Amino acid sequence: MSETASTRTPLSPTLRSSLTRYKERGGADRAELDAVLDAGLICHLGVVLHGTPVVIPTIYGRDGDTLYLHGSTGSGNLRAAMTGDVSLTVTHVEGIVYARSAMHFSMNYRSAVIHGRPVELTDPDERMHALQMIVDQAAPGAWDAVRSPNKKELAATLVLALDLTEASVKTRAGGPRDEADDIAAGGVWAGVLPMRQVFDAPIPADDLAPGIETPAHVLRRCSDTVALA
Amino acid sequence: MSETASTRTPLSPTLRSSLTRYKERGGADRAELDAVLDAGLICHLGVVLHGTPVVIPTIYGRDGDTLYLHGSTGSGNLRAAMTGDVSLTVTHVEGIVYARSAMHFSMNYRSAVIHGRPVELTDPDERMHALQMIVDQAAPGAWDAVRSPNKKELAATLVLALDLTEASVKTRAGGPRDEADDIAAGGVWAGVLPMRQVFDAPIPADDLAPGIETPAHVLRRCSDTVALA
């Protein structure tokens, strides 16, 4: 996140060279990447299409060192993602940082940026697994309760896998970092306004037959508070 | 948002040609764009840096037909945004769509995608106004309560303006769009799990002097429910 008066950039000017190679690292760093990705509902996928960047929101899934994307076989954006590198970003905004000066206003957040070249999955089992991971990410517990993709649907769907090797995580947490003079001057409130995402009561489909109860995997989420996606 | 089994793409394969020229349109379309932008806290900015797309989360502001960005004068990403086109996306996820089949799972959302070439603002008044718009977007009502940017801070800050002429808004709302066969088969719950973003009680800074009360412009937000950013 760009800070209002920051002298640090949101990400390094030589971004790709500064990215962590996560496969070569373990422990906390990798756990942090997984946590950011697993808490997300959507990512912002950046591709270059006809020489111009295009950033689109899309759902995704993850299993181990692989992130999965999918879309229509007719999607120009996904096609572009297979012929050039992509940048894929998941951001959770967790609070608004109120400072004593305008230029120190900021956001508390966690974000993961992945770079790489997605590859198309062609193996039927791998494709089905990827689609399950994507549905699991959006709606945990739902996959087993619903009809699986059929032949016609699978034929119309492009499934991509993106290696998580080249990735970085950035976070900002805590209160404002004000200038000493501004703190000394006093009189201005400073602090953090925390934010989170909540689910409200599920709304049954208009065409839902009577007697079908809301399943536990849906109800469970209503009491959850999840990180912002 | 990519839909699980959708035959439509998240955005048109020939994206730029399909974008709406908002300045040439009025009324509902333009109001919809403004509503999506004004409800957001961050955008995802896509630039091309060294031939590769880079997508970063950053805060922004808007006034009329102009969107404002800022960052360090040392930011390679912002510099890249001035020498090539950008794609800037604001997305609000508003619900998870539970369908009767895996491939019809989706998200309800509103998103705005802007394309263009940001220009650097050099006029002092324009720069100050842009910074105010950015702080106003993140923290409405805060600008007048805090110290204004000083000469040193301004010298270290790059302020960019992006015209909103070339933009598109996409939304998905309502329940699942299941296959007739799956609806007829029955037995599977379907519906929407609505989501929203909430603010929790403000946390004063550790170094806040005693006796400084939380201002009304902060307290006001705690009772707000805002769209997801």
UniProtKB/TrEMBL annotation, chains A, B:
Task: Name the Gene3D superfamilies on file.
Answer: Electron Transport, Fmn-binding Protein, Chain A
InterPro entries in alphabetical order: Pyridox_Oxase-rel, Split_barrel_FMN-bd
Pfam families named in the record: Pyridox_ox_2
Biased composition regions of type Polar residues, renumbered to the chain:
1-20
Ranges where the record places region Disordered: 1-23
Please state what the protein is called.
Answer: Pyridoxamine 5'-phosphate oxidase family protein
The scientific name of the source species is: Nocardia yunnanensis
